[in-house]
Design a protein that fits this description.
The protein has 179 residues and is mainly β. It has one helix and 22 strands. It has one domain: UDP N-Acetylglucosamine Acyltransferase, domain 1 (3 Solenoid). Strand 1 and strand 2 form a beta hairpin. The longest helix is centred in the C-terminal third of the chain and has 12 residues.
Length: 179
C-alpha cells in the first residue's frame, strides 16, 4: 500500500499504512478522520475514541491504556503525545513496564479532548487532562492541567496566553453542523 488507504472504522477514514493501531478492537475512528504516517495508537484496557474529521498528524502517539476520547474536528499536530498513564516514582517507587507491579506506582486517568481543540507540534498531554471545546495548545507545551474552553495556552508547564474568538468559533461550529 502507498499513501493513505481508505478503511472502514466507524465510517470512512484515511489511515496511512505506516500507522500502527494496537488492540484495534478497542479503537473507534470516526467518519472523515485521517491518521497520518507513523502514528501510534494503543488501547486496552481503556478505549480510544476518535471523533469525526479528526486529524492525527505524522508521528503522533496516543497511549490509551486508561482511555482517551477525542471530539469532532480536533487537530493533533506532528509529534503530539497523549498519555493516559504515567509512572509516579516520586516516593521511591520503581518505574518501567518490566518492573514488577508491586514495586511500581502508576497514575492512570483518561484524557478528554473536546470538539475543535488544536494541539501544537511536539506537545505532551498528561493523564487526566481535559482540553475544553475550541481551546488551543501552543507547540512544544507540557499540558499538566485542564484547559478551559477556547483558552489559549503554551509553555512548560502551560500558562494562559489568551482566548480564541468565541463568536467566530461558535458561528463556524453551527455552520458545519447544518451541512
Amino acid at each position: 500500500m502507498t499513501g493513505h488507504e481508505k478503511v472502514e472504522i466507524g465510517g470512512p477514514a484515511l489511515i496511512d499504512p505506516t500507522a500502527r493501531l494496537i488492540k484495534p478492537d478497542l479503537i473507534t475512528i470516526g467518519t472523515g478522520s485521517r491518521i497520518d504516517s507513523f502514528a501510534l495508537i494503543t488501547a486496552g484496557p481503556g478505549q480510544v475514541v476518535i471523533g469525526r474529521y479528526v486529524h492525527v498528524a505524522a508521528g503522533v502517539y496516543i497511549f490509551g491504556t486508561a482511555g482517551v476520547e477525542i471530539g469532532d474536528y480536533v487537530n493533533l499536530s506532528g509529534r503530539v503525545i497523549l498519555y493516559s498513564t504515567a509512572d509516579d516514582f516520586t516516593d521511591g517507587s520503581l518505574a518501567g513496564p518490566l518492573v514488577p507491579e508491586h514495586v511500581r506506582k502508576v497514575t492512570a486517568s483518561p484524557v478528554t479532548i473536546e470538539r475543535h481543540a488544536l494541539i501544537g507540534a511536539g506537545s505532551i498531554i498528561l493523564p487526566g487532562v481535559t482540553l475544553g471545546m475550541g481551546c488551543a495548545v501552543g507547540a512544544l507545551s507540557l499540558v499538566d492541567r485542564d484547559v478551559a474552553p477556547r483558552e489559549l495556552v503554551a509553555g512548560i508547564p502551560i500558562r494562559r496566553i489568551g482566548e480564541r474568538g468565541h463568536e467566530r468559533l461558535e458561528r463556524l461550529d453551527n455552520a458545519i453542523e447544518t451541512e
